[in-house]
Amino acid sequence: MTPPPATRTLAVVSAGLGTPSSTRLLADRLTVATVEALRQRGDDATVEVVELREHARELADHLVTGFPAGGLRAAIDTVVGADGLIAVTPVFSASYSGLFKTFVDVLDPDALTGKPTLLGATAGSARHSLVLEHAMRPLFAHLRAITVPTAVFAAAEDWADGDGGSLAPRIGRAAGELADLVAGRPARAASPADPFADFVPFDQLLGGQA
Fold first, then answer.
1. What are 188-193's contacts with CB under 8 Å, separation 24+?
2. φ, ψ for residue 48, nearest 5 deg
């Protein structure tokens, strides 16, 4: 009997500032490809998107108070609880954006340990493509996330055909790598069993020794 498909959760973090933004567009393309790749591997997927620009003020407040407001708390929980993560940032000053880094800074240091993660970045010029390797990948390595081998960078010219068709091979490869990692993980376990659930009182243990 074929087991029912597992349902995997994907968290998508987009640090784009505009509406619309090329960062969100790339995040959406990566998400669609990953969901399809998971389905090809026999798994269903649910997607939750975190638009960081919607939490900019809450992030600033968190830095000085140490406490996340309601919307930011939900966004953090979404990322921490997901089976896989897609993280996309625009490039500012040759690195990830301050908004993106601020969100990472408010996460618990162990929040992304072992989490399969696909990295993406956008910029106006392909000259910034190494941001993925010299900035983003070291950041997520520090957090002990498992980043897929293929990261996806999109410059302005990559959208020249109107839908980013030139990105398709890279997106498909990266999505397949993320799906392999997510689908290969065991289904989320229930809460650990209480090690004292079968506790035998000491007087009973001694009952047969009288």
1. 188/83
2. -125, 125
Residue 157: alpha-carbon gap to chain centroid: 26
Q: For the chain, first and last CA: distance in Å?
A: 54
Q: Is residue 198 predicted with pLDDT exceeding 80?
A: no
Tokens of 194: 């209480």
Q: Left (φ > 0), alpha (ψ -120 to 50) or beta: where does 162 sit?
A: left
The answer to whether 155 touches 126, Cβ cutoff 8 Å, is yes
DSSP3 helix / strand / coil % (the chain, rounded to 5): 45, 20, 35
Helices (H) and strands (E) in the chain, counts: 8, 7
Which distant-in-sequence residues (6+ apart) come within 8 Å of 107 by Cβ? 76, 79, 80, 143
pLDDT digit string, tens, across residues 59-114: 999 988 888 888 999 999 999 999 999 999 999 988 999 999 999 999 999 999 99
The pTM of the full predicted model, rounded to 2 decimals, is 0.84
Give CA–CA dist 111/107, Å, rounded: 6
**Amino acid code (one letter) for 63:** L
Domains in the chain, please, with CATH? 7-209 (3.40.50.360)
Q: Quick count: other Cβ atoms within 10 Å of Cβ 162?
A: 6
pLDDT at 154 > cutoff 90: yes
